[in-house]
Design a protein that fits this description.
Layout (H helix, E strand, L loop, with lengths): L1 H12 L1 H44 L7 E2 L9 E2 L2 E2 H22 L20 H4 L2 H22 L11 E2 L11 H24 L10 H24 L3 H22 L21
Antiparallel strand pairs: 1-4, 2-3
Length: 280
């Protein structure tokens, strides 16, 4: 009963985390179905929890850091790791996976001869579980933490609270670089296990196109990014916020260009017999 009460307190204390978690569940079920979604969540949560448990005791893989227990009794902890922290890895990894798929899935040739808007992508098993998606997802997973961790480290200046610290602060706004390596390690381990299961589960029977469903996960990635950048600017960390914005801007632009090929709206298409409604 005490665990249930602490869980409810956690939701009340960290509603934004559970909003993102709900968005993950909705978007993941739409894209990969419930059997794959719960496996993705469980694998990632367990991997993240084990790595956090290890790092707070051995420094592997995130480097040395410690939770100070300032919210014990206010939210749920497993051993000395806040529950809300380890579950965040699940929706962040799925969001990074969605962006990687948006950048790398093959474009589906339109069956009618008319281009779709956004572009139709083929949810190809070999591509979505391939090495390129694997590596890019792990990179994007660690990449978004380059915005999240610096502002989380300053949690005493916003509603997160000062819940952890690094005994040896790093050069990236106080965050050691090994922390980002640890995030990539979590992503690589969790994805390796999930990809093996994805290949063995019953094939997905998704109606094409899947791009609109994939956009939900991509929206989650940039929603989390916008939330953390917003908090960064709100607490007055202008340089830190601009740094985070600028490093993510090229990937965002590349994604938009790939999914929404605006060259199709070039004036030369006028008079070509293509009707405007064919772009919908």
């Amino acid at each position: 009963m005490e665990t249930v009460i602490l869980f409810l307190k956690t939701i009340a204390l960290r509603p934004y985390v559970f909003i993102f978690l709900a968005a993950f569940l909705f978007s993941a079920i739409k894209l990969i179905g419930w059997p794959r979604t719960w496996r993705f969540w469980l694998i990632t949560w367990l991997t993240a929890f084990i790595c956090e448990f290890s790092s707070t005791r051995t420094g592997i893989p995130f480097g040395w850091y410690f939770y100070n227990g300032s919210t014990v009794g206010q939210e749920l902890y497993f051993f000395d790791v806040p529950f809300m922290d380890s579950i965040s890895f699940s929706f962040l990894l799925f969001a990074a996976y969605s962006v990687a798929l948006g950048l790398l899935l093959p474009v589906e040739p339109p069956s009618t001869g008319a281009e779709t808007f956004p572009r139709s992508l083929r949810f190809d098993l070999n591509t979505r579980t391939g090495w390129t998606v694997y590596g890019l997802t792990a990179f994007l997973f660690a990449f978004i933490d380059m915005v999240i961790d610096p502002v989380a480290l300053r949690g005493d200046r916003w509603f997160l609270g000062k819940i952890y610290y690094y005994p040896d602060p790093g050069w990236h706004f106080g965050v050691p670089v090994v922390n980002y390596v640890g995030w990539a390690v979590v992503g690589l381990i969790a994805l390796a296990i999930y990809f093996l299961l994805d290949r063995r589960l019953a094939p997905l029977s998704l109606a094409q196109p899947i791009t609109q469903r994939l956009l939900l996960g991509i929206g989650l990635y940039y929603g989390v990014l916008a939330f953390n950048l917003g908090v960064t600017f709100w607490i007055g960390e202008l340089f830190m916020g601009l740094s985070g914005l600028l490093i993510h801007l090229p990937v965002f632009i590349l994604l938009i260009v790939r999914l929404f090929d605006f060259r199709r709206f070039h004036p030369t298409t006028r008079g070509s017999g293509i009707r405007p409604e064919e772009f919908v």
